[in-house]
Every structure is written in C-alpha cells, then in structure tokens.
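We modelled the chain as a single entity of 116 amino acids. Its sequence is:
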Amino acid sequence: MLVLANTMIMSARERTREYAVFKALGFSGGHLTGLIIGESLLISALGGTAGLALTFPVIAGFEQAIPKGIFPVFQLEPVTIILSLSAVLFIGLAAGFFPVQRALSTRIIDGFRFVG
C-alpha cells in the first residue's frame, strides 16, 4: 500500500501542471478525481492480479515440498480470494485519496507556477 501511495503522490506531483491545464480547459473536479482514482485503481489491480496469479503455483509448490503430516490441508479458500480482491480495491482508493485532495485544492495559477 505504501509503495502504491508513494507512486501516486509522485505521479500527482509531476502532473501538477497538467491538472492546472485541465482545470483551465474547464474539466471539473469529478473529471480530475476520476483520472487520479482510475490510475490508482489500475495500478492496484495490476499488482493484485499478478499476486493472485502467482498464488496458485506457489501453493502447488508448497503442497509438493512440505510433507503431508505437517499441514493436513493446504488450499486456498474462496473467501481468501474475495478478501484479497477487496483489499486491492481499498488500497487503490486509499492511495488515490491524497493526490486527489492536492489536485483539487491547487489553484490554476499555482499549478502553472509549480516547479517539481
């Protein structure tokens, strides 16, 4: 979560001028919010999908490597997948919260003056 939040904050900081241009062209706060949250959710979904895709081969490897007496049942429950997908959604939304606040609170002229 911290890596995604850091990525989103850096991305929003680098795009301050772009957001100022969008505001000057008449884009509403909802449009900017959709852009930033959409990017955050996309990055979060890509990471979560990659993690879930790698989970199944890792579990199969553990089942073969660990003797049967240690863990009698070693499987992935459907509730675990649902919880991980909901965590991906929550992390995506939470990581985009501060960049959205910054983009919406920055005035157009301050966005054009911003260096960073």
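As a brief sanity check on the tokenised model: DSSP finds six helices and no strands in the chain. The two ends are 24 Å apart (CA to CA).
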